[in-house]
Amino acid sequence: MTTKITALIAALTVAVASFAMATQASAAKNTHRYQTSGEKKRKDRQDRCQKLHNEYNEASDTATAYGNAYEHTGKQTDLDAARLYDEDAAAAQEKAGHLGCGWALRISKAPEIDPHTAVQISIAPIGL
Q: Would you list the DSSP string of 101-112?
């Protein structure tokens, strides 16, 4: 009698365990909702903003390097390359600004400083 009860309990345990695994294995149908979700659109926009930021940094750094090389060598090709990469950086910033990337908007709101009209302020300690 005990053997029959033990066998019945074992069979019942196996049935319950296999039912639980079978229900987990039958996942819901993929409706591709993520592809049209706001989360996906936000992530895509962030990825595009990051890509444009990388392009901007690379072009800006390269333009600075060519500008520095021009100051040392005086070669027109260095100056032309600096201008070309500076235009690439400006184009990347403009694209990012139209996309609404925060970094581009912050850069475009930075005030332009003309070195010829800039005023130098010196602060002296009081009492000297």
A: -HHHHHHHTSPP
